Amino acid sequence: MSKKALIIVDHGSKFNEANQMLAEIAELIKEKDTPEFEIISYCHMELAEPTIEQAFEDCISRGATDIVVHPYFLAPGRHSTKDIPQMVQKAAKNYPAVSYIVTNPLGIHEKIIEVILERSKI
Fold this sequence. Notes:
Elements (H helix, E strand, L loop, with lengths): L3 E7 L5 H16 L7 E6 L7 H10 L4 E6 L6 H15 L6 E4 L7 H10 L3
Parallel strand pairs: 1-2, 1-3, 3-4
Helix pairs in contact: 2-3
């Protein structure tokens, strides 16, 4: 039986407050109680823990057989299209029975436009 995990990845920061925001995003996703994912995790590409490798291993230790990694970035730059996929591939190499994908970053989406307009109200 497969067990799906979602890992959201941001850049990571030297500022704990910035890193804590991703933990809060992960909690909000958990609260949605989505049937698609039984495990929700988060990590940072660099500068902070948990790392991609730590999050990947944590999901596997919790029974994940399928892992979706989502770069929590706006644009498809080098980190989201090259660095993170390479880091995930490295983390996955010791787990050939586990399938994984790395999604596109947030990009352009109507809901992001809604958030921008909401935050821009005076």
